[in-house]
Amino acid sequence: MSTAYTPSKSFHSGLFGCTNDLGTFCVSLLLPCLVYGQNKKMLNVESDCRTSGIKYGVCFVIQSCMGGKLRGEIRRERGLEGSALEDCMLHLACRPCALTQERIELDRMERFGHLDELVFQRKKVVD
What DSSP string describes 27-87? Predict the structure, then answer.
C-alpha cells in the first residue's frame, strides 16, 4: 500500500470493486440516500447529510441525476475522465456499486489529506 495520495485518471476502485467495502455496499443497497448524503457531506458540498439524503430518496429518476451530479463533482475535483451522461447512467444502472466506488475514492482522498485541502479551499471561497 502506498503512503501518498496518487492522482489518476480514473477511480482507484473499479465500479464492481464494491466488494472492497462490503459495509458501504450493503448500506447502499438498503439505504442509498444515506450513503449519498454522507458522500456529499464528505465533499463539503452540503453540510447536512440528512437533507441531501432526503432529497435523494424522493424519486428513482431524480436519484440518478443527483447521484450523477455528485459523481461529476468528484471527477472534477480529481481530474478523472468521464461524462455527465455516463455518471447518470451508472447511478441508474448500478447505484449501489457507483455509491460504493465514490465512497472508496472519498475515503482514500480523506486518508491522504486531499479531502481536507478541498474542504479548506471550499470554506475559503464561501467565507
Answer: HHHH-HHHHHHHHHHHTTS-S-HHHHHHHHTS-HHHHHHHHHHHHHHHHHHHT----HHHH
Residues 82 and 8: beta-carbon distance below 8 Å: no
Would you say 118 and 15 are in contact if contact means Cβ atoms under 8 Å apart?
no
Structural contact between residues 106 and 118, judged by C-beta atoms closer than 8 angstroms:
no
* pTM flag (> 0.85): no
pLDDT in tens, the chain (127 residues): 445 556 677 887 888 888 889 999 999 888 888 888 888 888 876 666 677 777 777 766 688 888 999 999 999 888 889 999 999 999 989 999 999 999 999 998 888 777 666 555 555 544 4
Written as nine digits, the cell of 52 is 441531501
DSSP 31: -
Number of helices and strands in the chain (H, E): 6, 0
